[in-house]
Amino acid sequence: MKPAPFDYVAPTSVEEACKVLAEAGGGATVLAGGQTLMPLLNLRMSQPFVLVDINKIPELSGISRSENGIRIGAATRQCDALSNALLAAELPVLVEALRHVGHHQTRNRGTVGGSITLGEPAAEQPACAVALGASIEIASVRGRRSVAATEFYVGPFMTVLEPDELVTGITFPHWPSGHITLFRELAQRPGDFALVGMVGALALEGGSITRAGLGWFGMGGTPIRARAAEAALLGQALDSVNADAIAELALSECAPFDDHHASAEYRRTVGRRLFAKALREALTVREAA
Amino acid sequence: MSEHRVNLTINGRRHAATVEARMSLGDYLRDEAGYTGVHLGCEHGVCGACTVIVDDRAVRSCLILAVQADGAEVTTAEGLADSDGTLHPVQQVMREEHALQCGFCTPGIVMTLAALTGGQDKADEATLMNSLSGHICRCTGYQGIRRAARRLAAEPGT
Ligand SMILES: Cc1cc2nc3c(=O)[nH]c(=O)nc-3n(C[C@@H](O)[C@H](O)[C@H](O)COP(=O)(O)OP(=O)(O)OC[C@H]3O[C@@H](n4cnc5c(N)ncnc54)[C@H](O)[C@@H]3O)c2cc1C
Ligand code: FES
Ligand code: FES
Questions:
Q1: Residues whose CB is less than 8 angstroms from the CB of residue A196 and which lie 6 or more positions away in sequence, other chains included
Q2: Distance CA A130, CA A192 (A)
Q3: Which of A17, A141, A228, B50 has its CA 20 to 30 A from that of A30?
Q4: Are A96 and A25 in contact (CB under 8 A)?
Q5: Of A205-209, A221-225, A270-274, B61-65, which gets the smallest average pLDDT?
Q6: Considering only residues 46 to 75 of chain B, which have any Cβ-Cβ distance to chain A shorter than 8 Å?
């Protein structure tokens, strides 16, 4: 046994879980899929007094559609989201992104909400949430609130979540049927965290772009929304888009850093090309269709 | 530090135990229940050697707590072959294709492939090949393992 000792509770409702979190006064940690937390416990980088296992709370899993958008319960397993027909039909980019989250075996356990909450800057799902305009639902004994994904992340592994708060779900706004999806990442091996990646969606009307959601991962301390690039695309006809110029704009909004996997300069160089290529290919495929 | 009563089924046999909250399922299977076919390598989810089947899905036993497996049905490498020694199709194909050398990574790989080929809807070749990314093998160079996975996808009845 590697972790430091802790207590374990498995509440069956959100209210009960929030109560435990509040009473622990910061000494409790939520256990979702455990695919990040268990390694941290084994390395003793995390030493909570009590683990609050949310896997037995029915309200936290499942994917549903409402007029506000598509809601994914926080404890929905990545493998279940990956094979979900609603997501495949309405948010295919999310499914594409999920294919790159870890491995078959970690997706069998890891949750969508765990990845969203962790805020790893190179992770795919937080970038999807930021790029596509999702909002994150949060509960605590103090009540419920909802935070835009763009406001949720404040730094590497840092979010606005308070120690007594629980993420209950993520709601993605609707994107019109037939929207263009973009996804591309570069990782050292399949299943590794990306060195650089981009994700996005474009909605069209009469051949020109009416709505754009674009984001980066691995290109700074948080997932980044490429707002200048989005603005530049609006109103443009597909065949008039200059992908290199848009990629350059998107790059101007990043602040990649050096780490032992790659330098900031490498990330910028690869990021620029990867972004332009993803955009160019998506537009060409659509024009040809 | 809390202790918990757990009841689970391992390879068809019922087990009951009291476990410390911090005990992983991998540690429980190996050290308490005696299923030493569960190999613990990295204990942080990277190597895949500890992979077992929990309720029909291949998962890392180093990343689940034993207490979380309460009520679950667990299969380890020991649970695959018939009692007369006849190998499970995955084991047989891995053997024929020389998919192992030292054997440290093998139980994990066998469990992943067994989970993906054992059910009603057998996974296709792409899924099987992709699932191998979750396993590190230091010996074989992977080609034998890939051949075995390809055969499992192609051959009916395996
Ligand atoms: C080998 C390997 C490769 C991986 N590769 C990738 C990859 O390429 N891309 C990627 O994105 N991820 C990757 N991951 C991590 C991914 O598998 C995890 O699933 C994910 O990061 C965390 O989700 P989880 O459900 O496992 O959360 P946990 O590990 O259970 O929790 C993670 C953190 O979030 C907190 N938390 C979780 N859920 C909630 C909630 N609802 N409310 C409040 N707090 C919460 C926990 O307290 C903890 O601090 C990898 C993991 C492994 C082991
Ligand atoms: S020991 Fe579990 S993945 Fe390495
Ligand atoms: S056979 Fe030795 S690690 Fe794979």
A1: A185, A186, A216, A217, A218, A219, A256, A262, A267, A270, A271, A274
A2: 21
A3: B50
A4: no
A5: A205-209
A6: 48, 51, 57-60, 62-65, 67-68
**DSSP 8-state class, residue B28:** I
- Please report which ligand is nearest the Cα atom of A35: 1
Task: Give me the residue from A5, A31, A189 closest to B1, CB to CB.
Answer: A5
CB of B18 less than 8 A from some CB of A: no
> Which helix (H) or strand (E) segment is A225 a member of?
strand A224-225
Per DSSP, the three-state class of A153 is strand
Query: What pLDDT, in 10s, does the model give residues A145-197?
Result: 999 999 999 999 999 999 999 999 999 999 999 999 999 999 999 889 999 99
Question: Which ipTM score applies to this complex?
Answer: 0.96
State which fold the A7-53 domain adopts.
Answer: 3.30.43
Mean pLDDT within B148-156: 90
Q: Boundaries of CATH 3.30.390.50 in chain A?
A: 180-288
Q: Please work out whether the CB of residue B71 comes within 6 Å of at least one atom of ligand 3.
A: no
**What 8-state DSSP symbol labels residue A163?**
T
Q: Please, which pLDDT band fits residue B158 given cuts at 50, 70 and 90?
A: low
Q: Which fold has domain A59-172?
A: 3.30.465
- For B23, residues 6+ apart whose C-beta sits below 8 A from its C-beta are A1, B32, B65, B66, B67
Regarding the domain delimited by B3-79, which CATH topology (the fold level of the hierarchy) does it fall under?
Answer: Ubiquitin-like (UB roll) (3.10.20)
- Tell me the per-residue pLDDT of A2-46, one tens digit each, with 9 for 90 and over: 999 999 999 999 999 999 999 999 999 999 999 999 999 999 999
Options 1.10.150.120, 3.30.420.130, 3.30.470.20, 2.60.40.10; CATH of B89-154: 1.10.150.120
Rounded mean pLDDT, B111-139: 93
Out of B94, B97, B138, B145, mutate this one to test ligand 3's pocket (max ligand atoms within 8 Å of CB): namely B138
Residue with token string 């076919």: B37
